[in-house]
Design brief:
about 50% helix, three-stranded parallel sheet, mainly alpha, about 120 residues
């Protein structure tokens, strides 16, 4: 679906991973699935909007840990926009979110899981 152009907003087509786009973002608006994990791993301050009810527990957990700014389900676009603007106006909050999010999603979960399996096998 082609979306109308908007100033300073770029719609991207589905692709394998968002690392390239996220690396250019000051703040990202993401759902509550893989895009949230990718933003956190990249250290990009994120506003997380659950797209489906099943994402609510994940979004809430990230919010409790201070790893993302979160919204309820369902959320109005104006709510997300207000959160983005507030975050853009606060470089200190951006930096804090970036640090916390990279601690929550450090990209080493598979290695930890493998180590746990090996430990149990011994």
């Amino acid at each position: 679906v082609r979306r109308p152009p908007r100033p300073r907003v770029e719609w991207i087509a589905p692709r394998r991973g968002l690392a390239a786009e996220l690396s250019q973002a000051t703040v990202a608006v993401v759902g509550g699935g893989v895009s949230l994990y990718e933003a956190c791993a990249a250290g990009v301050p994120a506003v997380s909007v659950p797209v489906v009810r099943a994402q609510v527990p994940t979004v809430r957990a990230f919010g409790r840990r201070g790893a993302a700014v979160t919204l309820p389900f369902p959320a109005a676009p104006t709510q997300a926009a207000a959160k983005v603007v507030a975050l853009l106006r606060s470089p200190s909050k951006q930096a804090a979110l970036s640090r916390r999010s990279m601690r929550v999603v450090d990209g080493r979960g598979a290695a930890r899981a493998a180590a746990a399996v090996l430990h149990l096998a011994r």
